Amino acid sequence: MRVKICPSCKGRRLKRESLAVTVADLSIADFTEMPVETLFEKIETLELTARENQITRQLLVEIKTRLRFIIDVGLNYLSLSRSALTLSGGEAQRLRLATQLGASLSQVIYVLDEPTIGLHPNDTEQLIKTLRLLQDKPNTVLVVEHDKDVMMAADEIIDIGPGAGILGGKVVAQGTPSEISNDENSLTGQYLRGKKNVGILNKLPRKKQTSLFIKGAKAFNLKNIDVEIPLGQFVCVTGVSGSGKSTLIVEILSKAISQHLYGAKELPAEHLSIIGLDKLNKAISIDQSPIGRSPRSNPATYTGVFSYIRDLFTQMPEAKIKGYDAGYFSFNVKGGGRCENCKGDGYVRVEMQFLPDVYVLCEECKGKRYKKEILEVHYKRKNIADILDMTVQEAKEFFSDIPAICDKLKVLDEVGLGYISLGQPANTLSGGEAQRIKLATELSRYGTGKTLYILDEPTTGLHFEDINKLLIVLEKLVSKGNSVVVIEHNMEVIKNADWVIDLGPGGGDKGGEVVACGTPRDITKNTRSLTGKFLKKII
d(Cα 191, Cα 320) in Å, to the nearest integer? Predict the structure, then answer.
């Protein structure tokens, strides 16, 4: 399907009669299409008669209060007519936060899961002030966060670890930011005080060879810009929230490449042309969408390593005697070896009518997914269910003598996922974990050297230590001659880029221009660049 603007209302959703009603010569659609910040200024400066003022006094107070809350959470660039489906996870979360500010509740515990997702460091300070406003009501604000500025602004930090998965689950340290910083047991504390840091991996600058040229990009807020993207390099696209990064890279570049290489039907957003697409023979966009929505999908099946494991079990004497082929060791094949009570899920879904569905452990297989006779086949004293329960690190050592399996597991470990189990249900993985599983899957495939990898905020949900691991993986991709384009706000990643394209200077109508481009050091010298201002502090 293709979504196109309605030719009758031109995307404004209302009849001509409704649009004929105006305030200050503007229709309701004119008001809702403005960025929130512009709308706030417009309402502030409305010239009304004494009668109109009397009618609208209370209304204007309510409107301005709500608009101010949206501005306070860093969403000043959004328009009120923006479809909720087009909002990122971070934007949707901050919009809910703005709603809570307006509710004026007290004695409430607010729990926020990474509110800085999609937020430029320039906007983080405003978010911290907003959280303080909630606290002052008085309320309690609990934030799950990896951002250094948010951590340093907290009254108390609870550091969980020491590792991830089975290696974590303990309170490593608790106290004020300064107490955590001086706690030798806390890995987070070591990064906060600067004992450890995310280094610059590639000390030698890579020479620019060929480039992609995006000409006349004017979708959404992009102001008819021309952008050069060097190939064979690690490129970061930066800028404040709403500056046009996703429009340029996801809506224009990614969709145009998919159309050129794979004949995709989805049309790219408005632009004149892209020169240099013939320099690529493969493009992979790695986002944070789930790798599957049911418990049956898991890291082992998604990466393809499970096919090798199933083939291995068919070679076992017990399997050969009973005539079990690979289908018997799959929990997706009906009539094979899977438990039919839960259909290989390990869990039974209980529909709760108006509430979300609940998954209950299967009474028949006790979460093992397979029939009893299948679990009697062993490899090195482990059955197929035992293998799925292993973490990536455990499985890597267990299969160290089988390269086809070990190599894929090694890549999963390299992207910082050594702690997840092979059979962990896809619906329990975070967006960041799903993205890294996709990245590991692509890394384990045969590289052409002419591949473009596009990643949208890959550091979401990552600790400083994991960012280090991610950068090593991205550096490997580029060293093989591939191109990596990353939309990112994390300064530790940006300082590692070969080339930075900074959009802005602001968000919404105030964005959509190329503010600066060059090496990270070049960006720090540009006085117009807000990214450069923050980058200067860490380079």
Answer: 54
- Share above pLDDT 70 across residues of the chain, in percent, rounded to a whole number: 100
What's the helix, strand, coil split of the chain in %, to 5? 40, 15, 40
Per-residue pLDDT of 395-442, as tens digits, reads: 999 999 999 999 999 999 988 899 999 999 888 888 878 888 998 888
Give, rounded to a whole angstrom, the gap between the first and last alpha carbons of the chain.
Answer: 46
Helix (H), strand (E) at residue 309 = helix 305-314
Grouping H, G, I as helix, E, B as strand and the rest as coil, residue 337 is coil
Report the CATH number of the 299-414 domain: 1.20.1580.10
- Output the CA torsion sign for 422, 424, 430, 431: positive
* Structural Rg of the chain based on CA atoms: 26
Residues 6+ apart with CB under 8 A from 225: 214, 216, 217, 218, 248, 512, 513, 514
Residue 502 makes CB contacts below 8 A (sequence gap 6+) with 238, 239, 514, 515, 516, 517, 523, 526, 529, 531, 532
Q: 3-state SS string over 172-193?
A: EEEECHHHHHCCCCCHHHHHHC
- The CATH class for the domain spanning 88-192 reads alpha beta
* Cα distance between residue 181 and residue 198, in whole Å: 16
Residue-range domain boundaries for the chain: 88-192, 211-289+430-538, 299-414
Residue 411 is encoded by which pair of tokens?
A: 């890549």
CA separation (Å) from 179 to 131, 159, 210, 419, 496? 22, 11, 50, 28, 30
The CATH architecture annotation of domain 211-289+430-538 reads 3-Layer(aba) Sandwich (3.40)
In this chain, the answer to whether the domains covering 211-289+430-538 and 299-414 adopt an identical fold is no
User: Judging by DSSP bridges, how do beta strands 499-504 and 483-487 pair with one another?
Assistant: unpaired
Q: How far is CA 198 from CA 49, 52, 492, in A?
A: 60, 58, 6
Q: Is 85 exposed, middle or buried (0-12, 13-18, 19+ CB in 10 A)?
A: exposed
β 234-238/483-487 pair status: parallel
Burial of 47 (0-12, 13-18, 19+ CB in 10 A): exposed
pLDDT tens digits, 298-332 = 999 999 999 999 999 999 999 999 999 999 999 98
Q: Cα–Cα distance between 439 and 472 in angstroms, integer?
A: 12
According to the model, what pLDDT value does residue 416 have? Answer: 84
H or E stretch covering 132: helix 121-135
